[in-house]
Write a structure and sequence with these properties.
about 350 residues; Helix Hairpins; HSP40/DNAj peptide-binding domain; about 20% strand; binds zinc ion
Length: about 350
């Protein structure tokens, strides 16, 4: 249930800056322009702008409705200072829709609270709409990225999912892609990035909409030595807006089962066959390659210095307790063989 706003109003024609015989198109254009100008997102904390926004919205609510407009022309114009217009029956959704403002009724965060239910709702709807229309700054999203120890130390190429609507990174928000690049080739350092002859096509990833819905997947280059809490900024890859927001990728450890952290040290178990332990073996734990020395036995601890978690410029150690078991040890060795055969390398 929407609550109405009833208060003394300035001349709505004057508020919108239009003539008394203004057509509905003229009214609509005038309202849209002023609503954008006074929107709280563009005037944060400015009570005056907020009041003006309410005022232009009310003025338009009256003049777009032929009955309300006729009533105002008849009574209000004579005594504007005392004319009170009851907006309790106004459907604000219609007001917005009518001014070509498409509204996402799902609700969004970061909405200014004025204490007035009607306008709080209008502001909430407007902010999402205006961002998508490129009228206000887009928000920056924070994304958590869990890495293996090996990836933290050696760097990796990871994929993240952007949680909200985002600027299409294939076309950088232009909606058009260079036909020659759609195949995936980027220009070399000495090639022109565009030539007058180069054909453009509708961006295949966003269909020309310049943005992606929530859930766009982006590739992130994580440098070697990225510690816990490191933040990687993908400039301009966040929420559409002017300027667009960024995506901040926060690095963490994707703790594998059976491993735990003690400060920056990582503690875990490594299972070998009894023969491997006795002969010594190459092994891998959470992406870290290590060598178990000859003559090792169950219960021994293998310490890999500096290969634990990475903090602010310091690394902990990786401390593994050896276990021996025929079956599990053989399965681990077989899995490692298979990975080598199929990928020719290690998992990240
Ligand atoms: Zn695109």
């Amino acid at each position: 249930m929407l609550h109405g706003v009833s208060r003394t109003l300035r001349d709505p024609y004057e508020v919108l800056g239009v003539q008394r015989d203004a057509s509905s198109d003229t009214l609509k254009a005038a309202y849209r322009q002023k609503a954008l100008q006074y929107h709280p997102d563009r005037n944060p904390g400015d009570r005056e702008a907020e009041e003006r926004f309410k005022e232009v919205s009310e003025a338009y609510a009256i003049l777009r409705d032929p009955d309300a407009r006729a009533r105002y022309d008849r009574y209000g114009a004579q005594q504007p200072a005392t004319y009170r217009h009851d907006t309790s029956n106004v459907d604000w959704r219609d007001v917005f829709r009518d001014a070509d403002i498409h509204v996402d009724w799902g609700g969004r965060g970061g909405v200014p609270q004025t204490g007035n239910a009607v306008f709080d709702m209008l502001f909430g709807m407007m902010s999402g709409v205006l961002r998508q229309a490129g009228m206000v700054a887009g928000r920056t999203y924070e994304v958590q990225l869990g890495l293996s120890l090996g990836a933290m130390h050696g760097g990796t190429e990871a994929t993240i999912t952007v949680p909200g609507p985002s600027v299409c990174q294939t076309c950088k928000g232009t909606g058009r892609a260079d036909a020659s690049k759609v195949g995936g080739r980027s220009p070399g350092p000495f090639e022109a990035t565009s030539t007058p002859q180069s054909a453009t096509v509708v961006c295949p990833d966003c269909g020309g909409r310049r943005m992606r819905r929530a859930g766009a997947r982006l590739s992130v280059r994580v440098p070697a030595g990225a510690g816990l809490g490191s933040k990687l900024r993908l400039a301009g890859a966040g929420e559409p807006g002017n300027p667009p927001g960024d995506v901040l990728v926060q690095v963490g450890w994707a703790q594998p089962q059976g491993a735990s952290a003690s400060g920056l040290d990582v503690v875990g178990r490594l299972t070998l066959t009894p023969i491997e332990a006795a002969r010594g073996a190459d092994a891998e734990f959470d992406g870290v390659n290590l060598t178990v020395p000859r003559g090792s036995r169950a219960g021994d601890t293998v310490v890999v210095r500096g290969m634990g978690l990475i903090g602010q410029g310091v690394s902990g150690d990786l401390r593994l307790t050896l276990e021996t078991a025929w079956l599990e040890g053989a399965a681990r060795a077989a899995g490692r063989w298979l990975r080598k055969l199929t990928q020719g390398g290690e998992r990240r």
